Amino acid sequence: MDEQQEQEQQEAKLYFSRNLLEWYHGQKRDLPWRRHRNPYYIWISEIMLQQTRVDTVIPYFNRFIERFPTVESLADAPEEDVLKCWEGLGYYSRARNLQHAAKQVKDEYGGQVPDDRDAVFSLKGVGPYTAGAILSIAFNRPEPAVDGNVMRVLSRYFLIEDDIAKGPTRIKMERLAAELIPEGEASHFNQALMELGALICTPKSPRCLPCPVMEHCSARLAGCETSLPVKTKAKPPRPEERLAALIEGRGGHAGRVLIRQRPSSGLLARMWELPHWPAPPAEGGASAALLPETAAQDRLRRSLLQAGIFARPEGHWMAAEHTFSHIVWTLQVYRCREEEAPALPLAAEGRVPYGAASSPADPGSASASGLADPAAAADYAASSAAGTSPGVYNAGLTASVPADLFAEEPAPAERFADGGGNPEDAGAVRWINRGDMANYAFPNVFLKLLNAYFDEQEGKSDN
DNA sequence: AAATCGGGGTG
DNA sequence: CACCCAGATTT
After folding, report:
1. Cβ within 7 Å of strand B: which of A 149-168?
2. CATH placement of domain A3-227
3. Per-residue model confidence as pLDDT tens digits over A10-20
4. Is A185 a catalytic residue?
5. Which of A3, A46, A293, A340 is an active site residue?
6. What φ, ψ does residue A399 adopt, rounded to 5°?
7. Which cofactor is essential here (predicted)?
8. pLDDT of A22-74, one tens digit each?
9. Which nucleotide lies nearest residue A198, CA to C1'?
10. For residue A440, which of A257, A274, A275, A272 has the smallest C-alpha distance?
11. Domains of chain A: which residue ranges?
C-alpha cells in the first residue's frame, strides 16, 4: 500500500468513527440496560445478548434484575431460581456460569464488578467479546468488543474477506476495532458499532441508504455488500427420534404428571423434562414415527421400567420437535398411566438411575415401608423426604422387575446418547400439576407439551 | 481446530 | 419450509 492509499485509509477510518458516533447519538434505542450505567446491569445484558435478539432479551432482563437486583442477591440465590429466570432463553450453562461469576465478584471483588481487564476476563462465562463490552460500555475503557454485528460491519466497510468463523479473523477485527475508538468515547462508540449492525448493516439486506457511513463503505462501492462477511457454513444438525412419556398419576398423584431432572452437565443441564429415550431404529431404516405403535409403546415401557418408573403407555398423544445447534429431536409423546409398583420398596432420596444401568434391587430397602398402595406410598415418601414439597414421589423403585424385560435394552451409552452428564446427580423425579410448573425450569419444548396437556385436562373438566 | 451448548427470526 | 443468526467452553 503506497503513501496515498494509506492516507485515504486513515481518512476512511476517521470518517467512519466520527459519523458513526454522531449517528448513534441521534438513533440509539432506549434499552433497559442503557438507562443506568450500572456495571452489573451491563454485564447481565451482555450475557443475555450473546445468544438472543434484543427484543427477546428485554423482558428477561427486566425480570432478572427485579428478582436479582444486585451481584450479591444473584450470588446467594438458589441455582434453580436462576435457571427458572432463564427458562426459555436457552444456553442454560450461561445462567449457571453467570451465577458462578457472581460468587466470584462477591468473594474476590467485594461485590463490585471489577474495572480491570484481567479480573473481568477471569469471570466464568466472560470471554473476549463480553470482557470488552463490560470494560468499554460500563467503564469507558478503550477495549474492542467484537461480536458478529461488529465483524459484519467491519468486513463490509473495509472489505475484509477473511472467514469470520476462523479464530485469527476475530483477532484481526479486534485490532482494527481498537484503532477506531475515538479518544474517550469507547462506551458510545462500541455500542454504536453494534447498533449499526443490528439496525442498518443487517445480514440479509443491508439498508445502505440511511447508513451514516455508506459513502466510504468499500463493500457497497464494490457492490459486494450482500456477499460479506465470508463465513463457513455450520454443518446441519443430526436428527434424533425419541420416545417420550407423559405419565398421568393415579391415586395420590391424580391430576399430576411425572417430570424428571436432567444431569448437571451436558445438554440442558439440570433442567426438568418429561422422561424420554432414543427410539430404536425401525426395520428397513424407517423413522420411529413409523414404528408400529405397539412396538414403540413396548420399547417405552421397557425404558420406563429400567428407570424405575412404573407406568404403561396407552397411546400416541402428539409429536414435538426441538432444535438445538447440533441436534434435532423429534419427540413422539405417549400418554401413559401410572401403575402400582409390583413389590414395594421406596428408597428415601426420590431419585432414579438416569444414565446408569439400573441398580440391582436392594432387599434391605424393601422393608423401609410396607405400603403397597401407591397413594399411601406417596404419602410415605413425602413424609420421609424432609424438605421436599408435597407431591414428591420417590420413584427410586428398585423393586423386582422381571429380568427378561431388560433383555433387549440397549447399552447405557446408547440409551442416554444425548450428552447426559454425570448420572450420579440426576434422575430426581416429581409429580406436578400446572401450578407446580412455576417451581421447575423447563426447556421450551416441555413447557409447550405440559401446557398443552394441562389445557386439554381443563377443557375436559369444564365440559 | 472442532464440537458442544437453544431458540427464534426471515423470506 | 429452508435458511439464517453467535460467543464461551470443552475436547
Report:
1. 166-168
2. 1.10.340.30
3. 999 999 999 99
4. no
5. A46
6. -60, 170
7. [4Fe-4S] cluster
8. 999 999 999 999 999 999 999 999 999 998 899 999 999 999 999 999 999 99
9. C5
10. A272
11. 3-227, 238-462
